[in-house]
Amino acid sequence: xxxxxxxxxVTGSTGGIGLAVARGLAKExxxxxxxxxxxxxxIEKARAGIAAEFGVRAIYSGxxxxxxxEIAEMMAMAEKELGRIxxxxxxxxxxxxxxxxxxxxxxxxxxLAINLSSAFHTIRAAVPGMKARGYGRIVNxxxxxSIVASPYKSAYVAAKHGLLGMTKSVALEVAGxxxxxxxxxxxxxxxxxxxxxxxxxxxxxxxTKEQVIEDVLLKAQPTKEFVTVEQVAAIVTFLxxxxxxxxxxxxxxxxxxxxxx
Length: 261
Ligand code: NAD
Fold this sequence. Notes:
Blueprint: E1 7-10, H1 16-27, E2 31-35, H2 40-54, E3 58-61, H3 68-82, E4 87-90, H4 105-133, E5 136-141, H5 154-174, E6 179-186, H6 192-205, H7 209-217, H8 229-240, E7 251-254
Helix pairs in contact: 1-2, 1-8, 3-4, 4-5, 6-7
The protein binds nicotinamide-adenine-dinucleotide.
């Protein structure tokens, strides 16, 4: 186990990729902070399940990643309760699909806040402790959309390109201090986020559900398979290991060949 006596914060971890990442880190011995929205009983089931299955401490913060004050509270609570933050995974994210001229301004603001600015707020809170302890792993879950664009996703593409840029800057700032900062950029992973954008894409492009899956989603992915949440989680765990000590400022594509085209 590579993370015994370490603590991790994973934003947006009540479901999808984030929950798999939190479980992967707990399996390696890390205490974890779960964060995100959902039904209280389901969140508690996930939290208690992690604590029981892996014998670690698992705590929950309902902080809204669009609100800097709530992010600061979550980070302070994590340090107080778990004594440290060694691993920070910025995963919370939302999507909205619309032509740029119809893109609701409040959706633009929310996507930029949750998918980009929240990572700035968590990182600035976590870095001083990481520097003091000489160890830190910052992993930002970006997207193939950190490298390439798709139509109707102006806010998401802007946020993910921005997240990659910020990751590189932070990596340079903390280099040589035992801290790495990297992005993981998945292609399409089958999660509620992907499922929920299908109706809007159907509307925006005038397609059926099957056509969206075949001709829009998996069209970009040469392997013609969705990425699994466990595959993304395994890469986060790898980035926490000694083997990944010299990997920093990198963008790891997990996209079935999408961005190789
Ligand atoms: P998801 O919708 O399944 O889960 C998102 C998580 O974020 C949930 O726990 C949700 O409660 C939480 N969340 C949403 N808004 C929040 C807020 N304001 N404050 C706190 N938590 C909030 O999504 P997912 O597919 O697991 O995506 C996770 C990350 O991976 C996102 O950043 C997404 O952009 C990225 N990503 C996903 C895919 C994909 O195909 N699913 C591909 C590339 C990148």
